[in-house]
Each structure stands twice: as structure tokens, then as C-alpha cells.
Design brief:
Shape of chain B: elongated
Structural class of chain B: mainly alpha
Oligomer: heterodimer
CATH superfamily of chain A: Glutaredoxin
Helix content of chain A: 40-55%
CATH class of the domain at 27-92 in chain B: Mainly Alpha
Order of helices and strands of chain A: HEEEHEHEHEEHH
Radius of gyration of chain A: 18 Å
Mean pLDDT of chain A: 92
Strand content of chain A: 15-25%
Number of domains of chain A: 1
Number of strands of chain B: 0
Chain lengths: ~170, ~160
């Protein structure tokens, strides 16, 4: 009886501890999942960008802060697309709403659709938006929960990528 | 022979009566938002859609209302929601694969519980049958004890 209660308590404690294990650690490989693209018609994953720096941005059309940061993120991508790639992950969203969002903000970078939210769970997101800076080997370099205020805050977050690619460019010259 | 037209008329009425309920039950059930709100989940809250007022839940309601307006039945709406959000959007699991246990286990439990009750009742009845009927007195105490009892009672006889 006592053993049974102790076992149950141990199980519940383990559950609490593992639930609190949130967030990827810098240096960890970032989870990869092959998901449908937006607009529909293909599939893509983070693995397709191996060899490039990637800013992975998890968003949803119903999320106000995602709307707030979108113009700055699009501008950042246009200005830096030769140095890093931006990959949007639309999560727990209606595909039609997501497409409206993409058109509304004239988003040109690649998008994948995580309708059931499994990929966002793999990334251990706590909400939307959240961004991850991924190095060319697929490892996490930085994590940004919440919305970027402006393009400067995105540049600051992506500084390791911008500096690394700038240095590589200088060496090539 | 005179009864034949009457019988035919009765048969026709019975046929009509049998046909109409069959037709109405064959029709697809009309989908309603309140009912669906109790059968699907909010994609971000982990609660039934009916319990959530989150922006994502509101968008889900708009989606359902639009499908109802377009004449979709409940199953079509659920299928569309599953296509958008995955099977987790359904509050009740489907009846395939491992999900089947969600339905079978309670039924099995109910059957086993019923059997246990029946077994207990049968056992109780058997035990009652073994007991002597209330009206008939038992064999009573042995004669020596009876004599002792009579003697004791005589002592207290006033």
C-alpha cells in the first residue's frame, strides 16, 4: 500500500519535472518536421535550409503581436536575404486565414503550416510569436519569445548570423 | 372479398407510415454551432470550443458558421476541422485503432459491473434459501438445556 502511494507520488513528481522542462537550450539541434507549405502545393522543412543561417518564426493569423511584428520581419528579410533565410511556421491556424495574413503583409519568405501545433510543441514554444536563430548545422543559437518591436530588435537578435556571414563575405574577398 | 379494398387501404397507410420516418432518419442531421461547440476542441486552449473565447476559438466559430451557411452537415464540418487542425480537434476520439479502447473499456466495465451485481444477488438468494423459513421454529436446544431453562424459570416464578 505504502509502496503504491510512493510510486504514484514519484510518477506525479516526474510528470511535474518533465512538464517544467521547457525551452530548447542553445547549442541543441533544432527539431525538424516536414510540413505542407503555404501556399499549399508542396512540403518543406528546416532541414531544407541546412548550410544557411535561418530565422525560424512561429506565428498565427489570430495573434495580435504576430501582426505587429510582421512588417518589420518582412523588411528585415528583404534587406538580409543574401545572408540568412527566414522560415515562417504558421501554427494552429486556419489555412485560409493564414493565406489572408500572408497577402495582407505581403510576406515573401517561405512558410510552412503546422495546423495541429505538433511542431510548435516540438520547438517547446510557450506561445506565439516566437523566433529561433538556427546556425548552418541546424543548432539553436538564440531564442526570442514574443514579438520583435522593430527591425533593430530583429537585427540585434540575428547579429550572430549577420556577423558570421559578413565575416565569411570578407574572407571571400 | 368485400374486405379487400379496406385491407389495401390499411396496407397503403402502413406503408406511408413506415416510409416517412425512414426518409427523415436517412436525412443528414442539421449542423448547429452550439452542438459542435460541445464536440470540438479549441486548438490552443485545450478546452471545448464552447468554453473558450480566445481569438483562435472565435476564428474557428467563424469557420463553422460559414460551413453551416453553405449547407455542410456535422460530419463534413468535423472533417474540415480535422483537415485544418488534425484529429486532436475532435473532443471525442474516432472509433478506429487504439482509440477504440476509449469506447470499449467503459462498455466492458459496465458489463463486468452488471455481472458482478447479478452474481451478488444470486449468491444472496442462495444464502437466504439455506436459512430456515421465518414461520417454522428450529429444532430448539437439546433436552438437557431445556430442562435447565425450565428449572431457572421456575426459580424466578413469582
Amino acid at each position: 500500500m505504502i509502496l503504491g502511494v510512493a510510486g504514484l507520488l514519484a510518477f506525479l513528481t516526474w510528470g511535474l519535472i518533465s512538464a517544467g522542462d521547457s525551452g530548447l537550450t542553445v547549442g541543441d539541434p533544432v527539431p525538424v518536421a516536414t510540413l505542407p507549405t503555404l501556399p499549399e502545393g508542396g512540403e518543406a522543412s528546416l532541414a531544407d535550409f541546412k548550410g544557411d543561417w535561418v530565422l525560424l518564426n512561429v506565428w498565427a493569423s489570430w495573434c495580435g503581436p504576430c501582426r505587429f511584428e510582421s512588417p518589420a520581419l518582412e523588411q528585415f528579410e528583404r534587406e538580409n536575404r543574401d545572408r540568412l533565410k527566414v522560415l515562417g511556421v504558421d501554427t494552429r491556424d486556419l489555412s485560409e486565414d493564414a493565406m489572408k495574413f500572408i497577402r495582407e503583409y505581403d510576406i515573401t519568405y517561405a512558410q510552412i503550416r503546422d495546423g495541429n501545433g505538433d511542431y510548435a510543441d516540438d520547438l517547446k514554444t510557450t506561445g506565439v510569436p516566437e523566433s529561433f536563430l538556427v546556425d548552418p548545422d541546424g543548432n539553436l543559437v538564440a531564442h526570442y519569445p514574443g514579438a520583435f518591436n522593430d527591425i533593430e530588435s530583429i537585427e540585434k537578435f540575428a547579429a550572430p548570423a549577420l556577423e558570421a556571414t559578413a565575416a565569411a563575405g570578407d574572407e571571400a574577398k | 372479398m368485400k374486405r379487400l379494398p379496406g385491407l389495401l387501404a390499411l396496407l397503403a397507410v402502413a406503408l406511408v407510415a413506415l416510409t416517412f420516418p425512414a426518409t427523415s432518419s436517412a436525412a443528414e442531421p442539421q449542423a448547429s454551432l452550439p452542438q459542435l461547440e460541445d464536440e470540438v476542441m479549441c486548438p490552443i486552449c485545450g478546452t471545448l470550443l464552447g468554453l473558450s473565447r480566445s481569438p483562435a476559438a472565435e476564428r474557428q466559430r467563424v469557420f463553422i458558421r460559414a460551413m453551416i451557411r453553405d449547407g455542410a452537415d456535422e460530419e463534413e464540418i468535423k472533417d474540415a476541422l480535422v483537415a485544418e487542425y488534425g484529429p486532436q480537434v475532435l473532443a471525442l476520439p474516432d472509433d478506429e485503432g487504439i482509440n477504440l479502447y476509449a469506447y470499449l473499456v467503459p462498455i466492458l466495465g459496465f458489463i463486468l459491473g452488471g455481472l458482478a451485481v447479478v452474481w451478488a444477488v444470486v449468491r444472496m438468494r442462495r444464502n437466504r434459501k439455506k436459512d430456515p423459513p421465518a414461520g417454522k421454529p428450529g429444532p430448539g436446544p437439546p433436552s438437557s438445556e431445556s430442562e435447565r431453562l425450565d428449572a431457572d424459570l421456575a426459580r424466578y416464578d413469582l
